[in-house]
Amino acid sequence: RGIPREPGARWAEPGCQSCTCQGGRVLCNTVSCSVACSHPLPAPAGGCCPTCTGCLHEGVARAEGDVFSPSDGNCTVCVCLAGNVSCLSPECPPGSCPSPSPADCCSCAPEKCHFRGRTYAHGARFSPDGDGCTTCVCQGGEVECSFTPCPMLDCPQHQRHLGPGQCCSSCRDPPAPAGCFLDDNGVEFPVGQIWSPGDPCELCICQADGSVSCQRTDCVETCPYPIRIPGQCCPDCSAGCTYMGRIFSNNETFPSALDPCLSCICLVR
């Protein structure tokens, strides 16, 4: 190829050919690579033979001394040393485990639960009484039970009712009122009853819904000397006259308390 070579000279040609000059002739042979590692790296640019200064594992190049996990995982740890890949898997004890975890390297079978003569798998939920009021769950050989929470009721105790097959009580509809019950004196009035609660000027009536409605009477005095009758709300101007604490009937005459020479008469107008 236009280049003089000394006898015995050896050089490389493209295509991984090794050539030598012997007796005026050029002899070329394909380079034979001797690889002394299990996971060599491909030959570098311009080279013919793979190198053991790193590792090629599952199509991924690893540097010398690199520690990694293979793609299938399972907590196996591998290391690249002089082109060789060595992997170690964890040793798992035999038997069951309390609860498996996705990050757990060892596969195990969770322990089952034995409860009231029956066997339940790990994670199983069940109601031991069959009424749904109690929920139990099997966790690694142990059973945890909890009662169904009940809502708070805003009705009195005597209106609460627990039906068959129910876990929580409910409020009954209150019965229709038959009258009005007064807590202060214990008297019950029928619907439509009218009464005075102690003040003759106030009248109350028992409503259909059991409530009590009261109303006061406004009195209008039409005479200067009205008569107040006990138990009656408004003063009476037709029954007579009140004078100096005394009551006189209509047309009755009486001496004046201020002047004995004066005579007074009760006139209803």
Give the count of helical stretches: 0
Helix content: under 10%
Proportion of β residues? 25-35%
Helix-strand category:
mainly beta
Radius of gyration: 57 Å
Q: Give the helices and strands as they follow along the chain.
A: EEEEEEEEEEEEEEEEEEEEEEEEEE
Alpha carbon gap, first and last residue:
159 Å
What is the 3D form? rod-shaped
Q: Give the strand order, joined by hyphens, for the main sheet.
A: 1-2-3
Biggest beta sheet attributes? 3 strands, antiparallel
The tally of beta strands, per DSSP, is 26
* Mean pLDDT over the full residue set: 81
- Contiguous low-pLDDT stretches (5 residues minimum) are none
What is the element layout, followed by pairings?
Elements: E1 10-13, E2 17-22, E3 25-30, E4 54-57, E5 60-63, E6 67-68, E7 77-81, E8 84-88, E9 96-97, E10 109-110, E11 113-115, E12 118-120, E13 125-126, E14 134-139, E15 142-147, E16 160-161, E17 170-171, E18 179-181, E19 188-190, E20 194-195, E21 202-206, E22 212-216, E23 241-243, E24 246-248, E25 253-255, E26 263-265
Parallel strand pairs: 9-10
Antiparallel strand pairs: 1-2, 2-3, 4-5, 6-7, 7-8, 11-12, 13-14, 14-15, 16-17, 18-19, 20-21, 21-22, 23-24, 25-26
